[in-house]
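TICKET: design request
STATUS: open
ATTACHED STRUCTURE:
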């Protein structure tokens, strides 16, 4: 048992990655934590975040639950929401904000920062984070760096100087957790494995397409409102436009010229319904349960390379057990 897991009172070295836009809510985070992993509620508006965190804790029978905040979309109200909701840890991703780190720590919350480079590790720790999650480029969702997990993780340990180091990207099986722990990490973080569980709120056709998928794409195509790299499955939108990165970057880049991202509620709410395969202005919201089937062709189907090793959608508790093995 590592110092971090002991401090957080988490049984298994298995963390479910926060997945925003509604994919990872109370049902998923609560089930993961109840099974002895660390479940994470993905970002949403502050009020909804507080509600989902409380519900996740209830479902977890009081076991610890974490929250995820994407720095570009975070508002000050999210700090109170995470504290009131009872999050023991907050994972920050995609950007830096030393004041946000300080505000969370003042509320007694452990702050972990997911980063994809050595520079990111150094900056996160210099700005006061309790630890880092080294994200490899094989990861699903938004990508911060270019190195694979097995290259970045050992290098991330030196600058961490005793701070916690976790690793994300390509963790789908017990042997992946073993490899991460053998490289000295405190715990392994899995996104795609938990995307493909009964409790994740992703659209059923999205899950179906991800199971065993042989190919993923590193692209900026779904960058309208958030022009950043991400790893997705192929669909009609990527087949049509991913080969024309200059054109799509010019179009989506108009939003970065504004110097800001779309409000979370717009990016996840009204925008997806307006998307069409022929119009390369695709936002970052993934398709959720209950959305029209056609959205699966025009929204980002975030997935990591490791989906090729995932053969079924299973209950989240089974995924925790499978990843944790009999390690105890
Ligand atoms: C569907 C999906 C959504 C994601 N959304 C977020 C997010 O909202 N915030 C975040 O910090 N990371 C997000 N990620 C990235 C994860 O934190 C993590 O780096 C990644 O899932 C690890 O790689 P894996 O998918 O191979 O397990 C997402 C990943 C996936 C697959």
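STATUS: resolved
RESOLUTION: sequence designed for all positions
ATTACHED SEQUENCE:
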């Amino acid at each position: 048992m590592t110092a971090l897991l002991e401090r957080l009172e988490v049984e298994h070295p298995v963390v479910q990655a926060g997945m925003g836009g509604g994919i990872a809510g109370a049902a998923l985070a609560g089930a993961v934590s109840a099974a002895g992993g660390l479940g994470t509620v993905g970002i949403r508006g502050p009020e909804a975040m507080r509600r989902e965190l409380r519900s996740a804790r209830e479902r977890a029978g009081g076991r610890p639950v974490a929250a995820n905040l994407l720095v570009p979309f975070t508002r000050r109200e999210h700090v109170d929401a995470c504290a009131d909701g009872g999050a023991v840890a907050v994972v920050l991703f995609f950007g830096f904000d030393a004041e946000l780190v300080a505000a969370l720590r003042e509320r007694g919350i452990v702050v972990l920062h997911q980063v994809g480079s050595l520079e990111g590790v150094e900056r996160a720790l210099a700005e006061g984070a309790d630890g880092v999650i080294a994200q490899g480029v094989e990861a699903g969702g938004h990508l911060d760096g270019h190195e694979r997990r097995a290259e970045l993780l050992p290098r991330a340990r030196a600058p961490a100087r005793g701070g916690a180091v976790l690793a994300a990207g390509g963790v789908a099986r017990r042997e992946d957790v073993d490899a991460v722990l053998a490289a000295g990490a405190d715990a392994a973080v899995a996104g795609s494995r938990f995307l493909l569980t009964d409790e994740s709120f992703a659209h059923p056709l999205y899950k179906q397409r991800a199971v065993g998928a042989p190919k993923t794409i590193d692209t900026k195509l779904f960058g309208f409102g958030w022009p950043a790299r991400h790893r997705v499955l192929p669909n009609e939108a990527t087949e049509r436009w991913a080969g024309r990165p200059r054109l799509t970057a010019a179009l989506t880049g108009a939003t970065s010229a504004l110097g800001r991202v779309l409000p979370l509620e717009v990016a996840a709410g009204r925008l997806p319904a307006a998307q069409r395969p022929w119009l390369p202005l695709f936002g970052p919201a993934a398709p959720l349960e209950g959305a029209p089937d056609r959205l699966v062709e025009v929204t980002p189907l975030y997935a990591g390379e490791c989906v090729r090793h995932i053969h079924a959608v299973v209950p989240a508790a089974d995924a925790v057990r499978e990843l944790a093995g009999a390690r105890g």
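CLOSING REMARK: Residues 217-302 form one domain. The radius of gyration is 18 Å.
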